[in-house]
Amino acid sequence: MSASGGTKAIVAALAANLAIAVAKFVAFLFSGSSSMLAESVHSVADSGNQGLLLLGGKKARREATSQHPFGYGRERYIYAFLVSIVLFSVGGMFAIYEGYEKITHPHEIEDWYWPIGVLVFAIIAETFSFRTAIKESNPLRAGRSWKEFVRHAKAPELPVVLLEDLGALVGLILALFGVGLALLTGNGVWDGIGTLCIGILLILIALVLAAETKSLLLGEAAGAEDVEKIEKAVVDGSTVTRIIHMRTLHIGPEELLVAAKVAVQHDNTAAQVADAINAAEDRIRTAVPIARVIYLEPDIYSEAAAAKGADPAKSPGGPGADLGH
């Protein structure tokens, strides 16, 4: 896993959720509150989420093999996708079911001090966990908005933990709202409404995470800043005169594949071209250290071919197709 900060945030969230899950379940046993039961399942699901993220990080560190020559970096995307689809959805659907049952068959909450006390404790614990995730995300966020960070982060762990903790805090407030109104009015329907809202919240978060991790699984290009650095590093102005076309692909959160066709002088010798390609690869790795796999193909630039535009049949993927001869 890239940063120790990512692991630190996951471990902090795991410890908080395990403690909160036990407290919520005890509160449910004493009070019979469906909000407490839904929140218990939510915290257990969150604990499973963190376990999956840690497992994905461990599996991603395996060495490359002949069958998987680019390594296992995408394991982290797969486990993040499992988090978003399986555990969040299970927690959300369970909460919706419990909310429906409580609304159709309401009953008063017993021993009110248990759910109230546990919810206050849980809000405090989740706040510390959320604060840790924010603190560890700030250096990677680099001035971007939180929305941009979640949408464009290549490492999935911190965005997942951030959304989990945010969802947990909002869910706790909803549970407190439902339990409080049920106690004030003596009507258990409010507890069910709070539970239903928790379920809807979890499913919405699951959809957001699924969309983001699906994009990572499909394969995302390098960010605009890294692309610009690579473009500047490739051209040396003497042997390598321009980039004819280039593709980048994240094969893991901290592993980038770079493939480009570059223009060289027509009268360069093979030795000169080979030296220039090797030097360009070194410059790329210096500029963007996560560029682990680099393929540079030399060619002679043709203005006539460039004038004809891109040929998707030769180089699929949109603009920047083969403009050589």
Overview of this protein structure:
By secondary structure, the protein is mainly α. The chain is 66% helix and 10% strand. The protein contains 10 helices and 3 strands. It has helices at residues 4-31, 34-60, 75-104, 113-141, 146-152, 157-185, 189-218, 224-234, 270-287, 303-308, and strands at residues 240-252, 255-264, 291-299. A 3-stranded mixed sheet has the order 1-2-3. A hairpin with a 2-residue loop joins strand 1 and strand 2. Helix 2 (34-60) packs antiparallel against helix 3, helix 2 packs antiparallel against helix 6 (157-185) and helix 2 runs parallel beside helix 7 (189-218). It starts with a helix and ends in a 17-residue tail after the last helix.
Outline of this structure?
The protein is mainly alpha-helical and 325 residues long. It has ten helices and three strands. The chain has helices at residues 4-31, 34-60, 75-104, 113-141, 146-152, 157-185, 189-218, 224-234, 270-287, 303-308, and strands at residues 240-252, 255-264, 291-299.
List its salient traits.
single chain; 325 residues; mainly alpha; 3-stranded mixed beta sheet; 10 helices; disordered N terminus
Largest sheet: 3 strands, mixed
By DSSP, the count of extended strands is 3
Across the major sheet, the strand order is 1-2-3
Q: How large is the share of residues in beta strands?
A: 5-15%
Total number of helical segments? 10
Rg estimate, integer Å: 26 Å
What is the arithmetic mean of pLDDT? 83
Estimated structural class? mainly alpha
Q: What share of residues is helical?
A: 55-70%
C-alpha termini separation: 43 Å
